[in-house]
Design goal:
The structure holds two protein chains of two kinds.
Chain A: H1 2-7, H2 21-28, E1 35-37, E2 62-69, E3 72-79, H3 90-106, E4 110-115, H4 125-144, E5 149-153, H5 162-167, E6 172-176, H6 186-193, H7 203-210, H8 212-217, E7 223-225, H9 229-240, H10 248-265, H11 271-277, H12 291-299
Parallel strand pairs in A: 3-4, 4-5, 5-6, 6-7
Antiparallel strand pairs in A: 1-2, 2-3
Helix pairs in contact in A: 3-4
Chain B: H1 3-10, E1 18-20, E2 23-30, E3 33-46, H2 48-64, E4 70-79, H3 83-87, H4 90-106, E5 111-115, E6 118-120, H5 121-126, E7 133-136, E8 141-143, H6 147-154, H7 158-167, H8 175-180, E9 186-187, H9 194-203, H10 211-218, H11 224-237
Parallel strand pairs in B: 3-4, 4-5, 5-7, 6-8, 7-9
Antiparallel strand pairs in B: 1-2, 2-3
């Protein structure tokens, strides 16, 4: 069984980026505690992909269920970036929406969303788009009930399109260097606006503009992780304990935070310009910094930590 | 209908709604009080700057505490696609606007979306799809992606996609398909006063998110509701 093998993998060593959704969940949660809802044996497969002659997955590219984390009950959803780029189809979205609605009944200590998505699955675009809107409404309901919703981002597909909007709705986000958060992906911008606007083959530009380090420095994410499941587990536990409330005061603070960001950095061409203005002494060295050096840099940036989300 | 025609129908006795840089804002008399109008006009893309201007208006309306309705009128492009917008955290700004509208709804302000032109992708999610009830006018054209772009990404011939679009609403752009998935609750009658129709929508608002139920009833999203219900059921059983 793949699940058993995953559970035996050492979370200290398991790369989040390389792991499958099932491996991430098994190694993130307390050993043996994960219980899946609508597991692959139920074969809830997309009714739409056959129309496009595309293969289907028994779980439609998302794993949802319950587990414990350090003994506390949590609900977990994990997208599988290797299936259709982790994109939102009808069933994929329905599973996430159902999990969030279940949280209102079960009142877990947190809901964890392990993002790994390119956004909407185009073959089911209308269903995917609507599911993203339903997910955002459901997250707000869960947060308003006092349950933190924590996003973990470090997978192959990144967190793009509507996935980026859902991430922005969460209480807290943890991100690794490989975790990219953005609405329009590099290829989408290049296709629509040209390579002079965004050269999608310039990978360094992609990391600087959308990658985990930029998001962490600017306060777009609340924790930065090394690329191991263990690091994400530790980050999730830390973030659950300091989730902001969902109310007018939080959104007023977020309004001020984002307005301030645009006023201060709105004329910056490159992320390195932003980092320099944030007070980073040697912005050109940021992409090559290891986790410890980067954490030390973040600690000197006032904008990185806030309750305005 | 154009925005001017919509405003004339809604507010025969006048209003102070204006459009600046494609962003709609203002108020007009409604029932015994006033209704706040925000939105996007002229197929304008929504970037970080516009999103924060709209969210500020929504938060100001919530702070007043009068529970007045908020109308979100939309004829937009998709999200603004640029290096600058992504550098500045477009995902946070669009999510912030959606959260402001969702908070307004939770705070007792009826939120009504009105799509009268185009809208797509992130701009659609952050505005019209973040309201409690989304109405449309005939001729509106919501989409996730146009068919030529879908053809490019899926590597399927355009004529095959056009053929498929006739029989399956789940991926094809257009108002009828968004109605079928439950994203758009109702199509209004442009021949009747819009104010009365929007008042009726507010009166008939249901608690919870009814979109997956509508999608199942209308056949555009056949399984989403059942899947969500099955997850809840298994979660409860423990």
């Amino acid at each position: 069984m793949a699940g058993d093998r995953a559970a035996s993998i050492d979370p200290d060593a398991l790369s989040w980026y390389e792991a499958t959704a099932r491996q991430r969940v098994a190694a993130l949660a307390d050993p043996g505690s994960f219980q899946e809802f609508l597991p692959p044996t139920e074969r809830r497969m997309s009714p739409h992909l056959p129309l496009f002659d595309l293969p289907r997955a028994f779980d439609d590219g998302i794993v949802v269920g319950r587990a414990t984390l350090d003994g506390g009950p949590v609900l977990i959803a994990a997208q599988e970036g290797r299936f259709m780029g982790g994109a939102f189809g009808e069933i994929h979205g329905g599973k996430l929406v159902g999990l969030l609605r279940a949280a209102l009944d079960l009142k877990p200590k947190a809901v964890l969303i392990l993002f790994d998505t390119g956004g909407v699955r185009l073959q089911e675009a209308n269903a995917g788009e609507t599911a993203i809107a339903e997910t955002m409404r459901a997250i707000v309901e869960v947060r308003a009930a006092g349950i933190p919703v924590i996003g973990l981002i470090g997978g192959r597909a990144g967190c793009y399109g509507g996935g980026g909007l859902i991430a922005g709705t969460c209480s807290r986000l943890a991100v690794s260097e490989s975790g990219r958060i953005s609405v329009s992906g590099p290829e989408v911008i290049e296709t629509n606006k040209g390579a002079e606007e965004f050269d999608s083959r310039d990978r360094a530009l992609v990391w600087r503009t959308m990658g985990g380090k930029h998001r962490r420095l600017t306060g777009g994410a609340d924790a930065f992780c090394a690329d191991t499941v263990f690091a994400f587990r530790r980050a999730a536990l830390g973030l659950i304990g300091r989730a902001p409330a969902f109310d007018l005061a939080t959104l007023e603070a977020e309004q001020a935070r984002l307005e301030d960001r645009i006023a201060r950095f709105g004329d910056c061409r490159d992320a390195t310009d932003v980092w320099r203005r944030l007070g980073v002494n040697d912005p050109e060295t940021v992409p090559a910094m290891d986790t410890d050096a980067f954490e030390a840099t973040v600690a000197r940036v006032r904008e990185a930590d806030h309750d305005a989300r | 209908m154009t925005l001017a025609e919509i405003l004339a129908s809604l507010f025969p006795n006048g209003h102070d709604v204006t459009v600046e840089d494609g962003l709609v804002s203002g108020t007009g008399p409604f029932a015994d009080g006033r209704i706040t109008v925000v939105g996007i006009d002229g197929d304008t893309p929504l970037g970080v700057d516009g999103a924060l201007r709209l969210s500020r208006i929504v938060l100001d309306a919530i702070r007043k505490g009068d529970r007045s309705p908020i109308l979100v009128a939309v004829d937009s492009d998709s999200q603004r696609m640029s290096r600058r917008d992504e550098l500045l955290g477009l995902n946070e700004c669009l999510a912030h606007l959606a959260k402001a509208l969702l908070l307004a709804d939770r705070s007792g302000h009826p939120t009504i979306g009105l799509i009268y032109g185009h809208s797509a992708a992130g701009a659609f999610i952050a505005t019209a799809l973040a309201t409690r009830v989304l109405a449309a006018l005939p001729g509106a054209n919501p989409s996730v992606m146009d068919l030529p772009s879908v053809a490019r990404v899926t590597k399927l011939p355009l004529d095959k996609l056009e053929q498929m679009a006739k029989s399956t609403p789940v991926f094809a752009p257009g108002l009828d398909n968004m109605v079928a998935t439950g994203a758009v609750h109702v199509v209004l009658d442009p021949g009747k006063p819009l104010g009365d129709q929007i008042r009726d929508l507010i009166t008939g608002m249901e608690p919870g998110d009814v979109r997956d139920r509508l999608g199942a009833e209308r056949g555009g999203r056949p399984v989403a509701r059942a899947v969500a219900a099955a997850v809840i059921d298994q979660a409860r059983r423990g």
